[in-house]
Design goal:
The complex is a heterodimer. Chain A has three domains: 47 residues, Uridine Diphospho-n-acetylenolpyruvylglucosamine Reductase, domain 2, CATH 3.30.43; 111 residues, 2-Layer Sandwich (Uridine Diphospho-n-acetylenolpyruvylglucosamine Reductase, domain 3), CATH 3.30.465.10; 112 residues, Enolase-like, domain 1 (2-Layer Sandwich). Chain A contains eleven helices and 14 strands. In chain A, the strands form four sheets. Chain A has a five-stranded antiparallel β-sheet. Chain A has a four-stranded antiparallel β-sheet with strand order 11-12-13-14, sandwiched between helices. Chain A has a three-stranded parallel β-sheet with strand order 1-3-2, with helices on one face. Chain A is globular, with a radius of gyration of 19 Å. By secondary structure, chain B is α+β, with helices and mostly antiparallel strands. Helix content of chain B is 31%, strand content 17%. In chain B, strands 2-1-5-3-4 form a five-stranded mixed β-sheet, with helices on both faces. Classes of the chains: A alpha+beta, B alpha+beta. At the A-B interface, strand 1, helix 2 and helix 6 of A face strand 4 and helix 4 of B.
Chain lengths: 298, 157
Amino acid sequence: MHMPNPGLTEFDYVKPTSLAEASRLLAEHSDEACPFMGGTDAFVRIRDGFISPQTMVDVKHLPGMRDILYDERTGLMIGAAATMNVVARHPEIQDHYTLLAEAANSVASYQVRNRATIGGNLCNGSPAADTAPATLVLGGRMVLYGPDGEREVPAEAFFLGPGKTAVQAGELMTAIRFPVPPAGSGGKYLKLGRNKIGDLSIVGVAIFGFPDGAAPSGYRFRVALASVAPVPLRALAAEDVLAANSPGEETFTLAAEKAAEAATPIDDVRASAAYRKSMVRNLTLRGLRDVWGQLQNT
Amino acid sequence: MAIHSITVTVNGLKEHLDVPSNMTLLQMLREKLVLTGTKNGCMAGECGACTVLMNGEPTNSCMVLAVEADGAEVITVEGLAHDDQLNPLQEAFAEHNAVQCGFCTSGMLISAHALLERNPHPTEEEVKEAMVGNLCRCTGYLRIIQAVETAAKKGGA
């Protein structure tokens, strides 16, 4: 068994005071500089010997990185360095983006959530990232700042592979933007771990639904899965079933089946691939029932 | 490797220290300030033995760089008791035999203290959720949870 190195390897800590300076530092030292946010993933990887940065570039204090702004006309903007606890207890996120608050609150422990950031969670590119399914179903757009200025990447185009995202050399994520949720919408994040709370996800399922006259069923659902594919992903075939067929147990069962088919999990220390596929079906079904209940109550 | 001159308030005392970039807050507390109540358990932010309060929030000190504590207020387990008077949580832990080897206890007290400050009357579920980041290999947790609930009933933190 590989034991983690107790100390951190040697590096220089630098704290740029502007986005431009941060971007320059990251571009210049792209092979060996690590953007440093909460460190809850970075420190583990350093100690396990997966990365050995020469420079830790602290970006979490840069302008806007910790801001959370909500406007009922334009939606939500969350600074990339907002911690999980801050996201989870923010009144406007709880009211209008409950699913995202649930997802942030499901990460690890209270201590970790005081350091782990939503931007770090997304940029780490783990398929298990708890905030990823919520970001996918809520229509999140990642705001990146780099040598050529600012650009936006929609969540669907952001995750490229395990540990790989659309962030280029010299870029850092500064914020995530969410549109105003459709009227009457509801959502739920279900996370299965080896214990009730505190674990990494074996399977994560985010369901988001809202009334939509343009859909034959009168409703549109978005379903996103974590930990069951190389990237967090939307289960589009399941979504099609839900758009086409009246909401109810029969439709939800079929949709859950489609979600399980969309999953391509692996065996790992936490669970087998077969178990994961099964649990995608079960969690999707539970999630759909829950969100349908919410939609009927609004 | 860079050295940083920092000022950290630890248990109410202002400390001026020079720390290398890669030193963690945990190492700083134990090695520079000889505050060895805070323990090194897993070095991965999973066990909570290293939990301290940083600007009022429970934080795994093994996962924070010492240089990041510049300008911060840190409370360790040594800062809970006042003039040899145990705080209500510490008394409750003793009363309930919530300590066996004691290695997790520092972190448990800090997490519980912060919980009762922000939620003076937690349910059992809320206690468990707040303390899920503090692992204990000895007690089986029941007495720890009871101790936190007793301290809450007595209005203490």
